[in-house]
Design brief:
The chain has helices spanning 17-28, 65-81, 102-118, 161-174, 221-227, 298-309, 369-380, 405-415, 421-431, 435-439, 461-470, 476-483, 492-504; strands spanning 3-13, 33-37, 52-53, 86-94, 131-134, 150-159, 178-181, 184-191, 194-201, 204-215, 239-250, 258-262, 268-274, 278-282, 286-287, 323-332, 347-351, 358-362. With 505 residues, the chain is an alpha+beta fold. It has three domains: 3-45 and 163-237 and 343-383, FAD/NAD(P)-binding domain; 61-159 and 240-336, D-Amino Acid Oxidase, subunit A, domain 2 (D-Amino Acid Oxidase, Chain A, domain 2), CATH 3.30.9; 405-504, Helicase, Ruva Protein, domain 3 (Orthogonal Bundle), CATH 1.10.8. The longest helix has 17 residues, at 65-81.
């Protein structure tokens, strides 16, 4: 297996939000980057989040002030650079005196607001602050059981996590990075002043050369570390795998607000408006042994249904579930026994043996992926003094260079009056200002090709071909559940027919 040219500055293992975020940042600083991902980009934890860019209100109880402040600042950055994939969201917290006193919640929210303003660093903070709210008045009275009369409201941000990962990968590619999904990392060795890494894809095995290796493999971070030669004096960090599961049900309440619900175990469960007609409920915290254990259990289903049913007027039952998913968080093992208490902050372990660095990343959140990338490159700067300065907080991600979403949607409808308005809106939410690249020269519905169904979302052949040609999609799951959420609006028969069509194409 001869080595393939050229020599890359960085070999990044892992195509989740952290790996693609580092690839984007590094490529923009002038480094040559190769990213390999064993499956689909964002195919594991990065598409299985709670779909939020948030400071983490509950982390204040664990004194994670730096993490919360950094995350709160990132809300504004991501609203600015990815306006098609993010949107402000108001969260309602019903007050339950037996769980937390009102003064404690109010004090926590005031601190949350204060940390958010501090994180603005002189920039305008657009999200409104917290306040007390009466729950027995419309529209909230239509949502909750009558016993909940008072509560609090604060701001965070909703996000399309899978598409945010893809946007970072696309940006990195535009800047010269090589993005290789479905390319497995088998191991690497330090030889003749370079990393010699063995990769395997559909074409077989090959050797690639790099000056530095970044292990951003998420739940597989320890497995990748175990394939590398151990440096003298470099500790083997431990990872704690914590599963978070979610369920999706038909919309439980009117309005575009979310709920944060206190539970008897002192955890919180979120209800979020999702994909127009649904409510997302999550999450759980269950320690698991393997990344492959990312499957929702019957106990988790019961837990989430019970937590939501305690508050909303319409009881949530397992039979209501239209979709469920689980992800495994690769948290740095800090010795805590309670999975909910383990820090969500990121930790780096740097092995600098033979002056050939290997940087392994533990933990992190989708919210702080951009700051994590900056911190990772700061760790690697001694080996790449020529790299440029930090830059990613001001340049829009692909599709993010437009004014307001309503203006974008109105423009699409004016320029394409023959195309379905609901589909054009869905297109704007997925592709932003790049929607016209998907539409191309289509002037009629017939020109969009086959309609695979999906009620208001309607998945058309033209967009499917765009996913395949420009966004690395290969399987039905890639398209129905990550590039889009069209699977939610399709019948099982439509999903099966689409998968069959894709396999034949």
């Amino acid at each position: 297996m001869p080595a393939t040219d050229p020599i890359h500055d960085l070999l990044i293992v892992g195509g989740g939000i952290n790996g693609t975020g580092i690839a984007r940042d590094a490529a923009g600083r002038g480094l040559s980057v190769l990213l390999c991902e064993q499956g689909d980009l964002g195919g594991a934890t990065s598409s299985a989040s709670s779909k939020m860019i948030h400071g983490g209100l509950r982390y204040l109880e664990y004194f994670e002030f730096r993490l919360v402040a950094e995350a709160l600042a990132e809300r504004e950055v991501l609203l600015r650079i990815a306006p098609h994939l993010t949107r402000p969201l108001r969260f309602i917290m019903p007050h339950v005196p037996s769980l937390r006193p009102a003064w404690m919640i109010r004090l926590g929210l005031l601190l949350y607001d204060s940390l958010g303003r501090m994180g603005g660093l002189g920039r305008r903070v657009t999200l409104p602050g917290s306040a007390a709210v009466e729950l027995d008045r419309p529209p909230l009275a239509e949502s909750l059981q009558a016993r909940y009369r008072k509560g609090f409201v604060y701001s965070d941000v909703a996000v399309d996590d899978a598409r945010l990962t893809l946007a970072n990968a696309s940006a990195a590619r535009l800047l010269g990075a090589v993005i290789s999904p479905r390319c497995r990392f088998l191991g690497a060795a330090r030889t003749q002043g370079l990393w010699h890494a063995t990769l395997e894809d559909a074409g077989g095995r090959k050797i690639v050369l790099a000056r530095a290796l970044v292990n951003a493999a998420g739940p597989w971070v320890a497995e990748v570390t175990d394939t590398l030669p151990a440096g003298a004096g470099t500790p083997r960090a431990k990872v704690q795998l914590v599963k978070g599961s979610h369920i999706v049900v038909p919309r439980l309440y009117p309005g575009e607000h979310a709920f944060i619900l206190q539970n008897d175990d002192r955890r919180v469960v979120f209800l979020l408006p999702f994909a127009e007609r649904f409510t997302l409920i999550g999450t759980t915290d269950i320690r698991v042994d393997q990344p492959e254990d990312a499957r929702i259990s019957t106990d988790e289903v019961a837990y989430l249904c019970r937590a939501a049913s305690r508050y909303v007027r319409t009881p949530v039952e397992a039979g209501n579930i239209v979709w469920s998913y689980s992800g495994v968080r690769p948290l740095f093992d800090d010795g805590r026994s309670d999975p909910s208490a383990v820090s969500r902050d990121y930790t780096f372990v740097l092995d600098r043996t033979a002056d050939l660095p290997a940087l392994s990343i533990f933990g992190g959140k989708i919210t702080t992926h951009r700051r994590l990338a900056e911190a990772a490159l700061a760790r690697l700067r001694p080996w790449f003094p020529q790299m440029g300065p930090a830059w990613t907080d001001s340049r829009p991600l692909p599709g993010g260079d437009f004014g307001t979403l309503s203006e974008l949607v109105d423009g699409l409808r004016q320029h394409h009056p023959a195309l379905p308005p609901s589909w054009l809106r869905a297109l704007a939410l997925r592709h932003g200002s790049e929607s016209d690249k998907v539409i191309g020269d289509a002037q009629s519905v017939a020109a969009l090709g086959r309609d695979f169904g999906g009620e208001s979302y309607h998945l058309y052949q033209r967009e499917v071909e765009y996913f395949i040609e420009h966004e690395w999609a290969q399987s039905a799951e890639d398209i129905l559940w990550r590039r889009s959420k069209a699977g939610l609006s399709m019948t099982p028969a439509q999903q099966a027919e689409f998968a069959s069509w894709l396999e034949r194409s």
